[in-house]
Design brief:
- The strands form six sheets. The protein has a seven-stranded mixed β-sheet with strand order 13-12-18-19-20-21-22, sandwiched between helices. A five-stranded mixed β-sheet has the order 2-1-9-10-11, sandwiched between helices. Strands 4-3-5-6 form a four-stranded mixed β-sheet.
- About 45% of the residues are buried.
- Helix 6 packs parallel to helix 10.
- Among the domains are: about 150 residues, no CATH class; about 90 residues, no CATH class; about 230 residues, no CATH class; about 70 residues.
- It has 26 helices and 22 strands.
């Protein structure tokens, strides 16, 4: 029917204001204002204030502190204010807004009832007794049970509404004027934007049991009618217009400082590397890379941490595979982990242990949740659990080691390897064809700019983090790959690149890998800076041994640097302290993760080698000389850079308004359904980062909320051609979500893109006046 099609379109428009929320176990960084990126940043900020009652600019006291300690240069602040025609905005008093609005939202019976039903329906196994009828879908299931909800007045009236959610919505808003309907639907969805975001994600991923935003709106509109409650307008905090100018000055201070350091750096020839290590572009890799390169003849490169292997991985002993690649990609192949050659007996023992452990866990959970057995279970096990609690509190490191040793006795380790070649198990095809392996290898090598000059050993370093008793632990892993570690991808790509047939195919395509070069896989634990390398007998043992020794030396320095920035960090052995923090169940900050990220640099390593970038820049390797057509640059700017923008905006908004865009304090978190957290016993789903991930103390941010600046080392015309080809890049650069600086190697000039597409020369210490260059 035309009216239902129109209603569906109105829901789609309203849903554009809601960002999908990935569950805790499949963490993905996301811009909470993703649906507003088609607007200039300043407009989106005002929209956010009206929709969510959120602050979109750093608080006045934060900006004043940045000016006081020099992070905002006073001269640059005056310059920016004058450029905007508001010279008075540079005065600290311009940030003060009298009579700031009260931010507390009025109590809502609709919200309370809706949260209860959504938590029950969307539960992912945390509840002992699942909600009945979930297979019908959200609206149909709750509609059938509403008559039993004593807290909802006249819940029986739900039966009078159509079981189809769209038809139910049409009936519920029949008296609403057509021109107001989209606004009304938007207000209802943004009233609990976190829960709506999770429903939106589930609908996009077709997760069962099914729940759509139409289901959610039908239920919410029905509850609103029963409680006679209209969606309340979000309380808007008053913010000074000067805050935007101060933020721009803060950004300019940092950006110009970075450009000056890049321009002043002398191009020093690096020693011929005995090994090359390819790290993820993650800002945390920069610290270890810098210290490692200072220890010996090692060269590091940066590449997206899935290493071009867009696959689903099926872990050894598991039936299901998971997508081990950025969420922008859909894996087309499943790669299983199988027993390594000669390790069949160990593999069989591990499988048996996994089976025993699964049975024991099921029995333990059944006993804990049994009405009859729960009290006896507590009586019998209380002493053991109490002793464990004391041990993990007093000596977390020792307790963690003991648990690991016990786990290895129950489930003994076994060497495994990814089976990359095509195979068929029980009618299921896994692996990649020979042609697909060659194409995957070529794409990865060309994008990272490693097509010549291979060292005898090349180490592909995936990464992951670790923490205990932390619902956000997946957020310490890759920020793009759904909370998965990069080690499996490194092993897959190493296996592909070591294959003789693949190398033959690469040679036919112009990439000749020396016969003596061996690719190894490794995984960088960003919490402890330990880098574990999977051995390969083909690699030169002496080289690998020297590399391991230098990695340990670099680890000690990198860990000391990182721990010096963490609160409650005691002087002493940094590596031991980092391992203790990772094992401590009471530690709210095992690491800072990607806090303080501000730059994305696309360049050859010689452009940044030797510079201390303080773990603030994503570093993606790029050889502009080998990319004449700009194909590699196009991939880098439209995939890894977009993900970096998601990460940057998540950190930005989680910092400027942690209550709305973040997750609040971990102290009052309540894990719900296994997929998210609430504040207390009932709140919106908190979709951002906890306060402990971005704040060093109450009201004192550790993360500097600066928008991302992308620096590209390439000819200007090539960058322009890529931007002109992609709407997403025009949107991000043109609307002020990301700044773009081109370091043109052919002219030696540093050129900044204006929002209107024109360019201005910002070559440090060379051109005092910034003049426009025609777009």
């Amino acid at each position: 029917m035309p009216e239902l099609a129109r209603l569906s379109a109105q829901i789609e428009i309203a849903a554009g204001h809601v960002t999908p929320y990935w569950p805790l176990t499949r963490f993905i960084a996301a811009n909470p204002l993703q649906g507003l990126e088609d607007q200039p940043f300043e407009h989106a900020a005002r929209t956010a204030a009206s929709l969510f009652g959120a602050r979109a600019w750093p608080a006045a006291e934060v900006l004043k502190a940045a000016l006081a300690d020099g992070r905002i240069d006073g001269a640059i602040l005056a310059e920016v204010a004058a450029r905007h025609g508001q010279p008075g905005a540079a005065a600290p008093g311009a940030l003060d807004v009298p009579g700031n609005a009260q931010r507390a939202a009025p109590p809502s019976a609709v919200n309370r009832a809706l949260i209860r039903w959504l938590a029950a329906f969307l539960d992912e196994g945390q509840a002992a007794w699942p909600m009945p009828g979930r297979e019908k879908g959200l609206w149909r299931a709750v509609r059938a049970l509403l008559p039993l909800d004593a807290e909802v007045p006249k819940g029986t009236e739900a039966a009078a509404l159509d079981a189809d959610p769209l038809r139910a919505i049409a009936a519920l808003i029949a008296d609403v004027p057509e021109e107001y309907r989209t606004v009304l639907l938007t207000r209802h969805l943004t009233a609990l934007a976190g829960w709506a975001g999770f429903v939106k994600w589930r609908a996009q991923e077709r997760v069962k049991p099914a729940a759509t935003l139409a289901d959610l709106l039908a239920l919410r509109l029905f509850l609103a009618r029963q409680f006679e409650e209209a969606p309340a307008a979000a309380p808007t905090p008053a913010e000074s217009p000067a805050a935007a100018i101060w933020l721009e000055a803060w950004e300019e201070t940092w950006r110009r400082g970075l450009a000056a350091r890049l321009a002043a750096k002398a191009a020093a020839a690096a020693p011929k590397p005995e090994a090359q290590l390819v790290f993820c572009i993650d800002v945390r890799s920069e610290v270890l890379r810098r210290h490692l390169e200072r220890t010996g003849p090692w060269e590091t490169l940066g590449f997206a941490g899935f290493f071009g292997a867009a696959v689903a991985v099926r872990p050894f002993g598991e039936d299901a595979a998971y997508a081990s690649c950025p969420v922008l990609l859909q894996p087309r192949h499943v790669v299983p982990e199988v027993a390594a050659p000669g390790a069949e007996d160990a593999a069989a023992a591990r499988l048996a242990g996994l089976k025993r452990l699964k049975g024991a866990k099921g029995g333990l959970r059944a006993l804990k949740e049994s009405l009859a057995g729960a009290f006896g279970f507590v009586e019998a096990s209380g002493a053991a659990f109490g002793a464990a609690m004391v041990a993990r509190t007093v000596a977390p490191g020792g307790f963690g080691g003991a648990v690991k040793r016990l786990a290895e006795r129950v489930v003994p380790p076994a060497p495994t390897t990814p089976r990359v070649a095509l195979a068929c198990d029980d009618g299921v095809t896994t692996g990649l064809s020979p042609a697909e392996q060659v194409a995957t290898a070529e794409g990865a090598l060309r994008i990272m700019g490693l097509t010549t000059g291979f060292a005898p050993v090349v180490v592909l370093c995936g990464h992951g983090g670790q923490a205990v008793n932390n619902p956000f632990v997946a957020g310490l892993d890759c920020g793009a790959c759904g909370g998965h570690r990069g080690g499996p991808n490194a092993r897959i790509m190493a296996a592909i690149l070591n294959d003789a047939a693949v190398r033959q195919g690469l040679a036919a395509r112009g990439i000749a890998i020396p016969a003596a070069t061996v690719f190894l896989a490794a995984e960088h634990d960003t919490t402890t800076d330990r880098l574990a390398i999977w051995d390969d007998p083909r690699a030169d043992a002496a080289t690998v041994a020297r590399l391991r020794g230098d990695l340990e030396a670099a680890r000690a320095k990198a860990t000391a640097e990182r721990l010096a920035r963490l609160p409650n960090s005691k002087p002493g052995h940094a590596v031991a302290a980092a391992e203790r923090r990772a094992a401590d169940w009471a530690e709210p900050r095992a690491e800072w993760a990607l806090a303080r990220n501000a730059g994305f640099i696309v360049a050859d390593r010689s452009f940044t080698r030797g510079l201390d970038l303080e773990g603030r820049c994503f570093l993606h390797s790029y050889d502009w000389r080998a990319d004449k057509e700009g194909a590699a640059l196009e991939v880098i700017l439209t995939a890894p850079m977009v993900v970096a923008e998601w990460i940057n905006t998540q950190y930005y908004f989680s910092t400027v308004d942690n209550a709305v865009f973040g997750a609040g304090s971990k102290v009052t978190h309540n894990v719900v359904g296994g997929f998210g957290v609430m504040q207390g016993n009932g709140s919106d789903l908190m979709t951002g980062l906890p306060a402990q991930s971005v704040m060093s103390a109450t009201g004192v941010p550790y993360h500097e909320p600066l928008r991302l600046m992308t620096v590209v080392q390439a000819p200007l015309a090539r960058v322009e051609a890529v931007v002109a080809k992609h709407r997403i890049l025009q949107t991000l650069f043109g609307n002020g979500w990301v700044a773009l600086l081109v370091a043109d190697p052919e002219t030696g000039r540093f050129l900044r893109r204006n929002r209107d597409g024109s360019w201005r020369d910002e070559t440090p210490a060379a051109t005092p006046e910034h003049h426009l260059i025609a777009a």
